[in-house]
Amino acid sequence: MEFKTYSSPHLPVSNSVAVMMQRVLLALLPGTICAFWIFGWGIIINILLAGITALSAEAAILRLRQRPAFTTLLDGSALVTAVLLALALPPLAPWWIPVIGSLFAIVIAKQLYGGLGYNPFNPAMAGYVVLLISFPLELTLWSAPGAQLNFIDTLTLVFSGNLPVGQSLDTITQATPMDSIKTRLGLSETLSEIHASPLFGHFAGAGWEWLNLWFLLGGLWLLQMKVIQWQIPAGMLAGLASIAFVFYAVNPDIYTTPLFQMFSGAAMLGAFFIATDPVSASTTPRGRIYYGLGIGLLTYVIRTWGGYPDGVAFAVLLMNLAAPTIDHYTRPRVFGHGDRDKL
Amino acid sequence: MADSGTRFPRPQAALFSRLHTFHGGLQLPGHRDVTAATPIVPAGIPPLLILPLQQHIGEPAESRVGPGDYVYKGQTIAAASGPVSVPAHASSSGTVIAIEKRAVPHPSGLPADCIVIETDGRDCYQQADHAALDYRHTEPAELCALIRQAGIVGLGGAGFPTWVKLCNHSQRIALLLINAVECEPYISCDNRLLQERAAEVVEGVKILFHAVQPDACIIAIEDHMPQAEQALRTALDAANASGISVTRVPDIYPSGGERQLIRILTGREVPSQGFPADIGIICQNVGTAAAVYNAVVRRQPLLSRIVTVTGDGVAQPQNLEALLGTPVSHLIAAAGGYTADVDRLLIGGPMMGYTVHTDSIPVIKTTNCVLAVSRKEMPAPPPALPCIRCGKCTDVCPAELLPQQLYWYARSNNYDAAQDYQLFDCIECGCCAYVCPSHIPLVQYYRNAKAAIWTQEVQKKASDNARNRHEAKQLRLARIKQERAERMARKKQALSGDGGGKESRQAVIQAALDRVKRKQEQAGAAPKNVDNLTVEQQQLIDAADRRRRLQHPENKTTD
Question: Which of A3, A8, A21, A71 to mutate to test the interface with B (most CBs of B within 10 A)?
Fold first, then answer.
């Protein structure tokens, strides 16, 4: 009798990229629902626009590169990129913002480098940063919590720029808490004065603290499902909190609390969903910690002294640059080498 | 580790009570419930026994029989050759019909030299002329010789000659470790062995203990085999073997790997490219211990082994006691034959075993499992996607390597970098490939890279040899040239140094010419071939002479 031959191991596979990506999407769900709750339909429209653009762009490029488009689309990585980008974008941005962002993310940052597994930079953050630098005004169009437009009005605004009668951009949009801190600190107000504003909640921005909490929850689930490892989120949050603590201890009037830092802006989304993108991150166990710490520290530095209110995207891209070097210097000790030979 | 003796002072047991962990590893589905609960059955005598000369690590044995020879069961049919080798024995009586290349259990699928015996079914045993040995009063060296003669190798799967492990070490052995940790799914031969023959195993361990004289001895057993553990403890109590302890280790693959097991039990690591004996430890499989018992007490060489025949591709999964050389097809038949949807045949477990394309291969000393599976149980691997560097492989690698980096370098044929990342510390356990979400056949890449590096080394050695030969030849030619030049120079010197000047040279030439002339006058002038002339010839010659004399009257012939 003749048998086929295969290479070991022979047990059926236990894992797949598609399953990992599906779990990431699932873990984003609580935060996404919370964002929808706070910011309205704009979130959903962004996700749809970015998702459709990303999938079409990926399919087109794969066709051009003569790669199997269908199976690759099924791996879900393009969709994850699109959703991450969409969650970072302001909900009332015009339609071409998510479209350009995901086009850049998929075509330039991902496929032109060779597609899944070969991109040196986090595609979602590359797309976001391109938008942030090119269209700073549009990226401030965050809807004011509580002053929501319905689905049709949002759609009209996004696609035509027309507002419903009696509404102005000023009434339906609002500066983010971090933006507002940046501006008002510039006007020599103290933090305690700023925090008195209704923009702020229990320990961070109103609404934003909840958003971060739900992303934290989804991230913890990813940890438990072993889709991500603990080192990068722990490193990033530790980096962010520790430097925030130092400056807060020095002058609490102008430096926010570590808790505020950890639950503001894209901190939790960044720590569990963006910085953990394995392709562009450091891959050694020790390296992941340094990588996370670097992102945390840089995020704080950019938030506090940089020109932009949030710094997660820039911090991630900067650490993407450093990842190969970090990997090189953090190779683990191999079993049977060196001196761990004690009883 | 010259001081390892003092690191494991007697009394020892308490020192090893705390278990350590190794990095990574996997919890795998067991798939052994049926075979672990079914008694061992003899597989019987097959019509043909195919005994490869190489059933162990080291040099192959040398055949001592020829076609047509009748061999008894237990007779040595091939002798050990070289420092790491063991003999092979006929596992049943019959006639040697061929010594030829046959398909053997090897991942390469290449045939190898085998002694083929047509059995006569009588199982006629060559009478052992030795009485049972009391090992307690036998020198360790003598025990080693006996174990070597019995052809015993590690029965856990690697097949390293047991006597080499027992005797060829310079260290004092602090710990004798008996490995009953059957960590690969599906395999249960050691489990059944302990359940049914714990007393033999314990006796075997006591013999090994006597041969090695360690400070401590542990039998390590895995969590999933409580009946085996119970049987073992009962046998230990019955044998009053207080110096031997039993330790249960967690059910994590590959805790049965020698290096991993040593790490679990002692917290120490066998140095890379080194041996356990380097840190004062000797590790033996339980099956090996039972074989040692057979060799020393029953004076019987290694003739059979227990093989787990399982998978959903066989009708009745069970453990069979198979004579060495039994074709796998015979084992499958003994286990009820194939099921309809059998798709692949594996030798060894599902993590480190290898597929074979035919069931005509024999059971050899290292065959612990024959696994016949359907496509449903083990589907063809899905197509590989690009590596996303998720690092899951790093998290599970028991050798603490960076499999994703090794893959990268192996794939790009960057073998220097692969070696820099310690490719050769990879034990090919398959954990990385099992968890890889991109379904990359990582182990295959590593094996390929290792083989390529070995080939490169062989080629490098060959080219080094060629270069050395070439350089030696150039040197030799240069030397010869120089010597010749010197000789010429000396000769010249001699010629010119004698008289000096033109006249003397002319004198020498003249003398030489004179010598030649004299010689010619003596020899060359004499007529040749004139001894046996016929009358006509003589007349012709005389006529010619006369003519010559008439023409040149001044010339005279010698006659």
Answer: A8
CA distance B247 to B54: 34
Q: How many Å is the Cα radius of gyration of chain B?
A: 38
Q: Which CATH number fits domain B24-370: 3.40.50.11540, 3.40.50.300, 3.40.50.10770, 3.30.450.40?
A: 3.40.50.11540
pLDDT digits (tens, 9 = 90+) for B455-514: 999 999 999 999 999 999 999 999 999 999 999 998 888 877 655 566 777 887 888 899
Neighbours of B131 (CB within 10 A): 7
Among B302, B53, B334, B35, CA closest to B191: B35
Q: Where are the beta strands (DSSP E) in B304-404?
A: 304-310, 318-323, 342-347, 354-356, 369-374
Q: How far is A224 from chain B (nearest CA, A)?
A: 14
Q: Quick one: pLDDT band at residue B2, thresholds 50, 70, 90?
A: very low
Q: What is the C-alpha radius of gyration for chain A, rounded to an integer number of angstroms?
A: 21
| Beta carbons of B430 and A332 less than 8 Å apart | no
Assigned CATH topology for domain B382-490 = Fumarate Reductase Iron-sulfur Protein; Chain B, domain 2 (1.10.1060)
Using 50, 70 and 90 to split pLDDT, how confident is the model at B127? low
- Partners of residue B358 in chain A, C-beta under 8 Å: 1-3
User: Using CB atoms, which residue from B15, B357, B433 is nearest to A9?
Assistant: B433
Kindly report the pTM of this predicted structure: 0.83
Strand B318-323 to B70-71 pairing: unpaired
B344 with A6: Cβ contact below 8 A? yes
Query: Residue B245: which H helix or E strand, with range?
Result: strand B244-249
| Prediction ipTM score | 0.88
| Three-state SS at B404 | helix
Tokens of B496: 């010119």
C-alpha–C-alpha distance, residues B195 and B164, integer Å: 29
Q: Domain limits of chain B? A: 24-370, 382-490, 530-559
Taking an 8 Å cut-off on Cβ atoms, the answer to whether A9 and B385 are in contact is: no
Residue numbers in B near A12 (CB within 8 A) = 377-379
Could you give the C-alpha distances from B140 to A25, B179, B249, B370, in angstroms and in order? 65, 21, 30, 35
Residues of A in contact with B346 (CB under 8 A): 10
Q: Name the closest residue on chain B to residue A277, using Cα atoms.
A: B390
Q: Mutating which of B354, B390, B450 best tests the A interface, going by the most A Cβ atoms within 10 A?
A: B390
